[in-house]
Specification:
By secondary structure, the protein is an alpha/beta fold. The chain has 13 helices and twelve strands. An eight-stranded mixed beta sheet has the order 3-2-1-4-5-6-7-8, with helices on both faces. A four-stranded antiparallel beta sheet has the order 10-11-9-12, with helices on one face. Bound molecules: nicotinamide-adenine-dinucleotide and prephenic acid. It comes from Viridibacillus soli.
Length: 366
């Protein structure tokens, strides 16, 4: 059966959902974005099959509506939905990083006969906007759904059937569980990243050279501080209670570290890092985000035109598929590291052997 999906908000996440859903021959995606340039780009780039300038008008004719707007804007859209006269068969969902306030609003919608099932894919990036959208962004990532208690199972299954085109791992949680867990693994870490950048900035006037020395460690820890501030303003506003609890725990943890520093006992300090390493090494995470596994191979390529093409040609000749390729600039003025990602450990091993055999470049696995 053909389904029409309206995606409101065509940035990184809305654009990626729209592209993923288009993998289904039975889905037609129509998009809307408050920014007219984004709307035009989405159409030209084929991120959506069609666009609308009036979502309210088209909403009655679609099967599913996905809000992929910053979470405060999503609440506003949900409020306006109340007067749209949607048929009871329409499924409304979202992609927002917070869930409690959104599901409270969903409860109000239920009183009006509107079905809203909250959603949140746990994959993303510090990049925003339609140009960053990718059809495979959610592959293997967890995608949380937060249906209201007593939601019709068939309706949830229908939404799940549609979302399977994202290739994400769907899971159900309550809004409260969601907001607690995301405060731990996403929202509070974001505040820490921003605070480290503020700390570096404060250093600037006295020691302007310090920032030139910020290398891989600082970069990895603070990448997410380059995210869209409006997105994170809204997330922080909506989940500030949970985030404040994490901050209190963190302050207690920092007090523990302060005590370690005061005592200055080497064994205790080593133990602190050793325990963190053990826990971190056992986490099912890699470079793409929480709970998402990629198989990366690092290749120390020289900085001359064609060196990347040379590597990809070797891999193509041995029919080894790559899932991603990027350059990580770790040092200024010196060549970057080429990072090639594979679908599985076996492909990565074959690639490592192939590059070692056919090139003089050093390789290593993170
Ligand atoms: N960025 C991430 O890593 C990530 C991951 C998972 C979920 N999310 C959530 O997904 C949602 C979208 O995030 P994103 O990263 O795609 O942001 P984005 O900034 O890339 O895109 C947001 C889009 O929404 C549009 N927009 C803003 N206000 C609007 C409104 N009132 N009506 C219509 N369009 C509007 C913007 O023009 C923009 O195109 C947010 O709720 C966010 O919390 C983000
Ligand atoms: O990878 C990133 O840059 C992200 O910030 C993605 C990330 C996160 O892991 O915190 C950000 C917000 C989300 O709601 C889900 C995923």
């Amino acid at each position: 059966m053909k389904q029409t999906v309206l995606v409101v908000g065509l940035g990184l996440i809305g654009g990626s959902i729209a592209l993923a859903l288009q993998k289904s021959p039975n889905v037609r995606v129509i998009g809307f974005d408050a920014n007219s340039d984004t709307l035009q780009s989405a159409k030209v780039l084929g991120v959506v099959q069609d666009v609308t300038k009036n979502p309210e008008e088209i909403a009655k004719k679609v099967d599913v509506i996905v809000f992929a707007t910053p979470v405060n804007a999503t609440l506003e859209w949900m409020e306006s939905l109340k007067s749209w006269g949607l048929p009871s068969t329409t499924i409304v969902t979202d992609t927002g990083s917070t869930k409690s306030l959104i599901m409270e609003k969903a409860y109000e919608l239920r009183q009006q006969g509107i079905t809203f099932i909250g959603g949140h894919p746990m994959a993303g990036s510090h990049k925003s906007g339609v140009l960053a959208a990718k059809p495979y962004l959610f592959e293997n990532a967890y995608y949380m759904l937060t249906p209201l208690e007593g939601e019709n199972e068939e309706t949830i299954n229908n939404l799940q059937d549609l979302l399977q085109y994202t290739s994400a791992k769907l899971m159900r949680v309550t809004a409260t569980e969601h907001d607690h867990m995301t405060s731990v693994v996403s929202h509070f870490p974001h505040i820490v990243a921003a605070s480290l950048v503020h700390q570096l900035h404060a250093e600037g006037t006295d020691n302007p050279i310090t920032k030139l020395l910020a290398a891989g460690g600082f970069r990895d820890l603070t990448r997410i501080a380059s995210s869209n501030p409006i997105l994170w303003r809204d997330i922080t506003m909506q989940n500030r209670q949970q985030i404040a609890e994490q901050l209190a725990d963190w302050q207690a943890e920092m007090k523990r570290v302060q005590d370690l520093l005061t005592v200055g006992e080497a064994a205790q300090i080593e133990d602190y890092f050793a325990k963190a390493k053990m826990v971190r090494d056992e986490l099912p995470i890699s470079s793409q985000g929480a709970m998402y596994m990629t198989y990366d191979l690092y290749v120390d390529v020289p900085d001359y035109p064609g060196s990347i093409a040379e590597i990809t040609a070797f891999l193509a000749e041995e029919r080894i598929s790559i899932t991603n390729i990027r350059i990580v600039e770790t040092r200024e003025d010196v060549f970057g590291i080429l990072v090639v990602s594979f679908q599985n450990a076996d492909d990565r091993e074959r690639a490592a052997a192939c590059i070692q055999k056919r090139s003089p470049y050093e390789i290593y696995i993170s």
